[in-house]
């Protein structure tokens, strides 16, 4: 028994030592999440962005899912293919009436049609350091898992996977049941299943996923627009919950209580220097009191990160995992080890051949 206690104390010591970066220390690392892989550094939600997330030492790869007309789970943020991110190349087949595909909703396009798009040639104006990878295609979730597993043979990376369901405009995406069933089938067959957090602004999908599989970790995403309606009616994003029915002296406390009521393990609020920012110390304290973790998004300011760490958050979702990881080290906190650049880029080359 004494030996067991000693071993546990040694592991905990590893977890708080900034100098130690042993691979086995990954579970004790502060959760630096690469938002869309790390869109500040490479084109978002693509194999290159996840490659750089691994190279930069992200603890968790955060990404978004859509579902195509033919039911395939793909990794992309937007409901609609926008011209600022993707370009048409050629139709998937001759005389395709749906071509051009830019401007169409993912739910109305097949995987074959999506695979013709070049979504790697355009640097986003608000991310001037973003690496482009011309010719990059939208990947399926399975393709992303396969690529990362090539570099991450020990399955140490964590995942935060979001369902992009539009609760306000349900005709723009496939429905909750299709999303949850199709995503869960891929989760369940993956060696990463136990490392996956399932997140959504649409809390209906969190409730449905928990009903399908109570073992899945869920994270309740929230921003001002999904929590509060202009006329103070019940928001369509909160799974039928009325925040007025929850106790609390502030919106943040009510949200923590509401997220806890749907068995969410994590609360993920918007955190910026703006009047509509939701993250507060009071929210963090209440979530912790209820046994939930708090991982705000999308934090690209180290001043904001300083404040969040003082409040005791458990992780940070950022477009710049390399910079936030460096900051975490400076705070004397444990970070996840980086993946070998040569190996990751070799896997990227292998899995980017269309």
From TrEMBL:
Record-level Gene Ontology MF annotations: phosphoric diester hydrolase activity
Protein name: PLC-like phosphodiesterase
Organism: Mycena albidolilacea
InterPro entries, alphabetized: GP_PDE_dom (IPR030395), PLC-like_Pdiesterase_TIM-brl (IPR017946)
GO terms (BP aspect): lipid metabolic process
Gene3D superfamilies associated with the record: Phosphatidylinositol (PI) phosphodiesterase
Entry's transmembrane regions: none
Keywords in alphabetical order: Signal
Signal sequence region: 1-18
Segments forming domain GP-PDE: 30-328
Organism taxonomic ancestry: Eukaryota, Fungi, Dikarya, Basidiomycota, Agaricomycotina
């Amino acid at each position: 028994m004494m030996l067991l206690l000693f071993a546990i104390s040694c592991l905990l010591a590893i977890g708080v030592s900034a100098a130690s970066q042993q691979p086995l220390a990954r579970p004790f690392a502060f959760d630096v999440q690469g938002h869309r892989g790390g869109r500040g550094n490479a084109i978002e939600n693509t194999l290159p962005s996840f490659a750089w997330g691994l190279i930069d030492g992200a603890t968790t790869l955060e990404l978004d899912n859509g579902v195509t007309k033919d039911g395939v789970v793909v990794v992309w943020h937007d409901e609609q293919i926008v011209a600022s991110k993707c370009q048409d190349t050629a139709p998937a087949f001759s005389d395709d009436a749906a071509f051009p595909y830019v401007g169409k909703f993912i739910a109305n396009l097949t995987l074959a049609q999506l695979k013709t798009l070049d979504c790697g040639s355009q640097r986003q104006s608000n991310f001037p350091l973003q690496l482009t990878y011309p010719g990059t295609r939208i990947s399926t979730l399975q393709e992303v898992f396969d690529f990362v597993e090539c570099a991450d043979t020990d399955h140490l990376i964590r995942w935060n996977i979001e369902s992009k369901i539009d609760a306000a405009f349900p005709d723009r995406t496939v429905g909750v049941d299709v999303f949850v069933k199709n995503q869960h089938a891929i989760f369940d067959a993956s060696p990463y299943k136990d490392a996956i957090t399932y997140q959504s602004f649409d809390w209906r999908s969190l409730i449905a996923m928990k009903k399908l599989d109570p073992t899945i970790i869920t994270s309740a995403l929230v921003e001002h627009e999904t929590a509060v309606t202009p006329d103070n009616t019940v928001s369509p994003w909160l799974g039928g919950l009325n925040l007025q029915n929850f106790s609390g002296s502030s919106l943040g406390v009510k949200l923590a209580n509401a997220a806890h009521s749907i068995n969410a393990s994590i609360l993920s609020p918007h955190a910026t220097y703006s009047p509509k920012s939701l993250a507060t110390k009071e929210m963090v304290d209440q979530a912790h009191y209820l046994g939930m973790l708090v991982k705000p998004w999308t934090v690209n300011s180290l001043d904001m990160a300083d404040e969040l760490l003082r409040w005791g958050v458990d992780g940070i979702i950022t477009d710049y995992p390399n910079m936030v990881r460096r900051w975490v080290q400076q705070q004397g906190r444990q970070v996840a080890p980086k993946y070998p650049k040569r190996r990751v880029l070799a896997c990227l080359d292998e899995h980017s051949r269309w």
